[in-house]
Amino acid sequence: MDQRDRNIILIGMMGTGKSTAGHLIAQQLGYTLLDLDREIEKAVGKSIPAMFESEGEAFFRNAESAVLDRVLGRRRLVIATGGGAVLRKENCELMSQKGWVAALTADETSIIDRVRGDSGRPLLAGDNLEERVRQLMEERRDCYRFAHVTVDTTGRSAHEVALEVLAHYRG
Questions:
Q1: Res. 125: pLDDT tops 70
Q2: I need a labelling partner for 118 at 20 to 30 A (CA). Which of 1, 20, 48, 90 fits?
């Protein structure tokens, strides 16, 4: 496949700017932005919080893997994944084989500031947001290492992040 037709897959913790930067990257390339979480919701017919509540996380992760596999059959997409899409080895292998993967990172304080007040994140529901973010960051610390490039979004605009991802993508 021609490098210019490859999907760009954005991975990283929630709150690292995957959707925001992804929109700008897709715009620059004339690609379609695909938010994996929205695609899962469409496929299942429920919101992610509702899936977690009624079916559990394992059900959601199965749906996530199935939808990821399906959308990676398309071309010229910028795919903004959910933060946990990397929890299954087969998802990571699929993303590496069928796309060009950029991991977006940010420091703990930035992530906490960005996700505070977002009720659509079931893994952050309840008290002590800071501790839950810290725990997720620790659990997932090594999960993003398979990416072709890593871009730190701390203190940077979505435009700056998009430009850096595009510079790496274009080689």
A1: no
A2: 90
